[in-house]
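To: structure subgroup
Subject: Chain for Friday's discussion

All,

I'm putting the inputs and outputs inline so they're searchable in the archive.
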Amino acid sequence: MRITDLLPEDTTTINQVAAILVAAFAEQSPDFCPTLDSAIEEIRESFAPDRISRVALDDDNTALGWVGGISEYDGNVWELHPLAVDPAHQGEGIGSALVADLEELVRQRGGTTVQLGTDDETNMTTLCGVDLYPDPWQHIARIQNLKRHPYEFYQKQGYVITGVVPDANGPGKPDILMCKRVSRN
């Protein structure tokens, strides 16, 4: 496997990544990239100057996964958005490699923190389906993974839960916010 920039002119790989996006988010966030057209639009947005767009390819140049990054806070913080690995290849280290690659590029660009939001719209954690107000931290402290929600994957990569956005995706459907320091500039 190798990780490289996803290029705007590489329509073959863009189409492969679009199919991965649709498949990878179908269960967790069904409203994010539900069609190939919406996935291609998401990919096209990743080619902006303040963005990072990286793809993992196998030896036959078939896309295995994709990660994007968005510069925020004058480049001090980068949002990891999105990360998608072909469901047939999840658990093989591809996601971890893509996250590490993005973190290194953020360091090289002078960034100190990578942040992300990982939605729970489908009752994958104990934060979904409950009223997180008035004290979201009591719920965060007792979070449990019910259906393989990716927050635990990110914890294994060194990310910590730094908050939630209650009702971000509708009543009882929060966005779980996570961050990792990648440099001490």
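Points worth raising on Friday:
The first helix runs from residue 11 to 25.
The chain has a mean pLDDT of 96.

D.
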